[in-house]
Amino acid sequence: MSIDKTKSMRDAFFGTVYDLAKEDEDIVVVSADMGAPSLDRFREDFPKRFFNVGIAEQNMIAIASGLASEGKKVYTYAIAPFITSRCYEFTKLNAGLMKFPIKLVGVGAGFSYDDSGPTHHTTEDISIMRTIPHLEIYSPSDSLSAIEFAKMMNGSANPSYIRLDRKILLQIHEEGEEFEKGFKEINHGRNLAILTTGNMVHTALEVNKKTSEEIGIIELFKIKPINPEIKELLTQYKQVVSLEEHLLNGGLGSIISELITDNNLPVKLKRIGLTDFIYAYGGRENIQKICGINTDSVLAEIKKL
By the 8 A CB rule, do 109 and 245 touch? Predict the structure, then answer.
């Protein structure tokens, strides 16, 4: 299958869901008043399997729970902050505790809805969603990985959440790659590695271009559950830097810190991310600069190490 490099994660993801739905009549999409070019075909070709519940995200999860209890494979779709924090209790009880395999598709990870302001920023979703029992969390860095995660989520018996970026990101991965392991060492370094996820993988790659040091880059694209094999990779480095467009409290850096502490790994960790919520506009690059997570800021921190 040839990947359209101009296609967003969202359209690549739902294009794959459409292809799966042609072979599986149990696949259903429930949208909270959200559309997408890739969903037009689904709505037109499978009108009895597409439901728009309006701007009522909690009701969307409730409806999805009922459908899932009858054996349907339900994909719910909304902007990321609304499908996570707004629906948290519904998802915890109806999907997590009941272990219904509802698939939560959130668009707008981090600051990718930069022009819509703080109401649409998603910088705490990892922190809250990883506490939900049985829930799997996926964080792609390009459209190809989004396609593969659509397939993995479809085949899982657990509830799952995928945090898609709104922007069209450059393709990092190649066709035929394996994603089941949940992580990948994109670049092998000497003493220091940046461990990151989502759009910040691109920032890490830019940092690597601007330094003469041999920096490793590890992408963690399945955030929960984490494959324990990553421990062996971490111990190959003296220093690991976690990088995230997300709050430090409970985010990617916290996950890695817990992994290092609980397993007594001989690795030092430096966390780079948001120290608190921020009320900011002015484009994603400007917001990242204010937060100290843009390329130059990260490079400066790396040089200190």
Answer: yes
The structural domains of the chain, with segments of one domain joined by +, span 9-164, 183-304
Which residue(s) pair with 27 in the sheet?
A: 73
The answer on pLDDT for 5 being more than 70 is no
> What tokens does 237 get?
């480095």
Amino acid of residue 173: H
Strand partners, 240: 193, 269
Q: Which of 30-34, 123-127, 246-250 has the lowest mean pLDDT?
A: 30-34
Contact (CB, 8 A) for 42 and 24: no
In this model, does residue 29 exceed pLDDT 70? yes
Q: Is this model's pTM higher than 0.70 or not?
A: yes
What secondary structure does DSSP assign to 237-289, as a single string?
-SEEEEEEEEESTTSHHHHHHHHHHHTT-S-EEEEEEESS-----S-HHHHHH
Rounded CA-CA distance 69/63 in Å is 10
What whole-number distance in Å separates Cα of residue 235 and Cα of residue 218? 13
Q: Pick from 138, 256, 129: which is nearest to 193 by CA?
A: 256
Cα distances from 106 to residues 31, 59, 141, in angstroms, run 11, 16, 14
The whole-angstrom separation of Cα 58 and Cα 82 is 9
CA-CA distance, 217 to 187, in Å (whole number)?
5
Question: What is the average pLDDT across 90-104?
Answer: 96
> pLDDT value at position 213?
82
- Per CATH, which fold does 183-304 belong to? Rossmann fold (3.40.50)
Check if CATH label 1.10.3720.10 holds for domain 9-164: no
